[in-house]
Automatic annotation (TrEMBL):
GO terms for molecular function: methenyltetrahydrofolate cyclohydrolase activity; methylenetetrahydrofolate dehydrogenase (NADP+) activity. It holds the Pfam family THF_DHG_CYH. Catalyzes the oxidation of 5,10-methylenetetrahydrofolate to 5,10-methenyltetrahydrofolate and then the hydrolysis of 5,10-methenyltetrahydrofolate to 10-formyltetrahydrofolate. This is Bifunctional protein FolD. Residues 7-122 form the Tetrahydrofolate dehydrogenase/cyclohydrolase catalytic domain. Its EC number is 1.5.1.5, 3.5.4.9. Pathway: One-carbon metabolism; tetrahydrofolate interconversion. One of its GO terms (cellular component) is cytosol. Belongs to the tetrahydrofolate dehydrogenase/cyclohydrolase family. NADP(+) binds at G167, R168, S169, I233.
Length: 297
């Protein structure tokens, strides 16, 4: 039995962050200012707090300005929208990111819709999803763009390949399918209502699992030689030792016997999200400064 390759997203992300840092140096030399990223956290969700802290640290490590705004969970939507408007108008801010999820009393779509699309480094604004869907230059959501980078690094040209995206979220599933389409893949989106999902997944040369259900995609669903990108981050308690750990949406141990290559959880797609966020911030800073897109990113 052959065992598939484990794709090292952590190493790839580190290399990308190094390239961004080089690009930041060149940007500062040209403009005399640092690119700036504003991150807004509402409430104290532990996982979100960790992600925001890591974003701040990595922004600074790449040579950019990091601005963090921590607001209580009780904040009203109007107040949050006012902060977004202030950041839209702030010349030092090239990128604005509002950490998701937001508390239930706040309408996520209104908040995202208030961000200046040119500063929308998450690529969640409808202007950016529309630009992406129509094949125009857009700010592209970080996690799916990171997945495409890993896929192209592993497979080269993706043209003509059969891709199945499991999950239809606005953050991952939908933009992922658009990006695969732009690479000339034949794309299917599977979801919770898909009939015989095992046979749908079995068609795929590329499987992207982004459903948020621990180890839902089984090894035998995978066509031999397929490449699997596991976007899931699910915290589970081990039945044997009672310890908490994170697993993906794919049963990785089983899948390894079928795949050509697979991203692990942790250490696969996750680290790419923040690396691409830094890349998007640098791209936004170039556009706002009237400079051409940085090369090689
Ligand atoms: N505004 C946004 N909100 C959220 C996004 C986003 O892109 N924009 N994505 C996720 C959370 N996220 C970044 O915000 C994120 C998730 C996971 C990782 C990561 O490095 N994961 C590690 C494991 C981490 C762990 O042990 O828990 C890995 O997979 O190796 C980075 C960023 C939702 N919200
Ligand atoms: Mg909400």
């Amino acid at each position: 039995m052959t065992i598939g390759k484990i794709i090292d997203g952590k190493a790839f992300a580190e290399t990308l962050r190094g390239k961004v840092a080089d690009g930041v140096g060149a940007f500062i030399a040209k403009t005399g200012r640092k690119p700036g990223l504003a991150v807004v956290l509402v409430g104290e969700d532990p996982a979100s707090s960790v992600y925001v802290r890591n974003k701040g640290k990595m922004t600074v490590a790449a040579g950019m300005e990091s601005m963090e705004f921590k607001l209580p969970a009780s904040i009203g939507e109007e107040e949050l929208l006012d902060l977004v408007e202030e950041l839209n108008a702030d010349e030092r801010v090239d990128g604005i990111l509002v950490q998701l999820p937001l508390p239930p009393h706040i309408n996520e779509a209104s908040v995202i819709g208030t961000i200046d699309p040119a500063k929308d480094v998450d690529g969640f604004h409808v202007v950016n999803s529309g630009l992406l869907a129509t094949g125009q230059e857009a700010m592209v959501p970080c996690t799916p763009l990171g997945c495409i980078m890993l896929l192209k690094d592993e497979l080269g040209d993706l043209s003509g390949l059969e891709a199945v995206v499991v999950g239809r979220s606005n953050i991952v599933g939908k933009p992922m399918s658009q990006l695969l389409l732009a690479e000339n893949c034949t794309v299917t989106i599977a979801h919770s209502r898909t009939r015989d999902i095992a046979s749908v997944v079995h068609r795929a040369d590329i499987v992207v699992a982004a459903v948020g259900r621990a180890e839902m995609v089984k090894g035998e669903w995978i066509k031999p030689g397929a490449t699997v990108i596991d976007v899931g981050i699910n915290r589970v308690t081990d039945t044997e030792d009672g310890k908490s750990r994170i697993v993906g949406d794919v049963a990785t141990a089983e899948a390894l016997a079928h795949v050509r290559a697979i991203t692990p959880v942790p250490g696969g797609v996750g680290p790419m999200t923040i690396a691409v966020l830094l890349r998007n911030t640098l791209v936004a800073a170039h556009a706002r400064a009237g400079l051409p897109r940085p090369e090689g990113l």
